[in-house]
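S.,

Sequence below, as promised.
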Amino acid sequence: MNQPDIALASRPRLTRLSGGCYGCRPMTQRLEVTDGDLARTITAGESGSAEHAETELYRRFAPRVRLYGLRHLRDDDSARDLVQQVMLLTIEKLRGGAIREADQIGSFILGVSRTMAIDLKRRERRRERLRDTFAVEPSISEPQGSALDLGRLEHCLGRLAERERMIVLLTFYAERSARQVGDEMTMTEGNVRVTRHRAIGKLRACMSGTGAVQ
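The prediction came back faster than expected:
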């Protein structure tokens, strides 16, 4: 495990003033609130205390999830999206009592960060493949970066024949090879390639406005 991963899974401590729950009225006894304490308080759902615990859990882990995102996604916007998705899922799971090992909440957040980072990278890779395959060269009057209109692409996909559309989706969204698509659709690998080539041609024509999907 590299250093950022270790930092994410660690369990910092915060001094609290309370008699038994996070966010309660201050008393003279000083106790330390662990990440596990916060997780248990959120799961208990006590009004006021749970809200304070959620805020504190977010404060502790959001910067570390963002650092993880920057390391692995190398984009600030993607890292911020990762923070929101990871922390929202974590708090929802805690509220629903789905996390049984409260003291392992740091490891849980690390695992969710890894899974979601992989998903975000796959999503971006699919967008790049769509952009490379279907993007229309922008005209002089069009700004750079506007070549791929995803709304237009969705419209054009909807006008393809069912088999053509399924092959395109399995190829570019599910990232299946021609052989895998053929196995799933009971087609030969050669027929998949021919049908996919024809579908891509129709989509390009539809995207450029030079032809309509038949």
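Residues 94 and 110 are 15 Å apart (CA to CA).

Coffee later?
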